[in-house]
């Protein structure tokens, strides 16, 4: 349906979790599987775009015809995203908001209170950095993973981060993270649209179709 419509465009997609090292054997992360972001990358490819997929650690194979850049931490993900200058960026990664200020050089020992002494610092906001860059892509689209009031929280997040649109999904209770299907709401400056509950592949296609339609207006 959307075949060839993004030909000549370069799109960047972030997907999966980040891992923030505590010591050489431990990290903090989240339940993102990468499925939603990988489905979006494949849908963009099917629409004819050149796609760079910056991916945190997942068990997924890289879809054919897509360049994957594998990263671990949020800082690595930021650097990989800033290394490309795309026409559009879809930030689907579940980036850890915090990291230990310094990963310990040696494995922390139990019984000495070491873990209580880990000092946490905030990670940079990758999608906000891209949206605020001098050479801003034409499209910067984020996701909002919410456990309550998904639409209202996502609306505020879109404006705070300077995004053209945001996809709201409710997480927790076995929803969105790691599942094969999802329920998404598209939110932009004009309002919001329920994209419904469907397999992630189907939602990814609906999302790409929406971008193509809006670009024609
Ligand atoms: O990977 P799956 O198992 O398929 O699950 C899909 C998903 C639930 C991970 C996905 O649909 C989703 O919601 N991704 C965003 C998860 C998230 O971290 O949401 P957030 O509300 O915390 O962040 C809002 C936006 O800012 C996101 O676009 C996120 O990529 C971005 N962000 C957040 C923090 C940060 N330091 N840098 C960022 O760029």
TrEMBL record:
<dbReference type="GO" id="GO:0004632">
    <property type="term" value="F:phosphopantothenate--cysteine ligase activity"/>
</dbReference>
<feature type="binding site">
    <location>
        <position position="107"/>
    </location>
    <ligand>
        <name>CTP</name>
    </ligand>
</feature>
<comment type="similarity">
    <text>In the N-terminal section; belongs to the HFCD (homo-oligomeric flavin containing Cys decarboxylase) superfamily.</text>
</comment>
<feature type="binding site">
    <location>
        <position position="161"/>
    </location>
    <ligand>
        <name>CTP</name>
    </ligand>
</feature>
<keyword id="KW-0210">Decarboxylase</keyword>
<keyword id="KW-0285">Flavoprotein</keyword>
<comment type="function">
    <text>Catalyzes two steps in the biosynthesis of coenzyme A. In the first step cysteine is conjugated to 4'-phosphopantothenate to form 4-phosphopantothenoylcysteine, in the latter compound is decarboxylated to form 4'-phosphopantotheine.</text>
</comment>
<feature type="binding site">
    <location>
        <position position="143"/>
    </location>
    <ligand>
        <name>CTP</name>
    </ligand>
</feature>
<comment type="pathway">
    <text>Cofactor biosynthesis; coenzyme A biosynthesis; CoA from (R)-pantothenate: step 2/5.</text>
</comment>
<feature type="binding site">
    <location>
        <position position="157"/>
    </location>
    <ligand>
        <name>CTP</name>
    </ligand>
</feature>
<comment type="pathway">
    <text>Cofactor biosynthesis; coenzyme A biosynthesis; CoA from (R)-pantothenate: step 3/5.</text>
</comment>
<dbReference type="GO" id="GO:0015941">
    <property type="term" value="P:pantothenate catabolic process"/>
</dbReference>
<protein>
    <recommendedName>
        <fullName>Coenzyme A biosynthesis bifunctional protein CoaBC</fullName>
        <ecNumber>4.1.1.36</ecNumber>
        <ecNumber>6.3.2.5</ecNumber>
    </recommendedName>
</protein>
<comment type="function">
    <text>Catalyzes two sequential steps in the biosynthesis of coenzyme A. In the first step cysteine is conjugated to 4'-phosphopantothenate to form 4-phosphopantothenoylcysteine. In the second step the latter compound is decarboxylated to form 4'-phosphopantotheine.</text>
</comment>
<comment type="similarity">
    <text>In the C-terminal section; belongs to the PPC synthetase family.</text>
</comment>
<keyword id="KW-0511">Multifunctional enzyme</keyword>
<keyword id="KW-0436">Ligase</keyword>
<dbReference type="GO" id="GO:0071513">
    <property type="term" value="C:phosphopantothenoylcysteine decarboxylase complex"/>
</dbReference>
<feature type="region of interest" description="Phosphopantothenate--cysteine ligase">
    <location>
        <begin position="11"/>
        <end position="217"/>
    </location>
</feature>
<dbReference type="GO" id="GO:0004633">
    <property type="term" value="F:phosphopantothenoylcysteine decarboxylase activity"/>
</dbReference>
<keyword id="KW-0456">Lyase</keyword>
<dbReference type="GO" id="GO:0010181">
    <property type="term" value="F:FMN binding"/>
</dbReference>
<keyword id="KW-0460">Magnesium</keyword>
<feature type="domain" description="DNA/pantothenate metabolism flavoprotein C-terminal">
    <location>
        <begin position="6"/>
        <end position="213"/>
    </location>
</feature>
<feature type="binding site">
    <location>
        <position position="97"/>
    </location>
    <ligand>
        <name>CTP</name>
    </ligand>
</feature>
<keyword id="KW-0288">FMN</keyword>
<keyword id="KW-0479">Metal-binding</keyword>
<feature type="binding site">
    <location>
        <begin position="124"/>
        <end position="127"/>
    </location>
    <ligand>
        <name>CTP</name>
    </ligand>
</feature>
<dbReference type="GO" id="GO:0015937">
    <property type="term" value="P:coenzyme A biosynthetic process"/>
</dbReference>
<dbReference type="GO" id="GO:0046872">
    <property type="term" value="F:metal ion binding"/>
</dbReference>
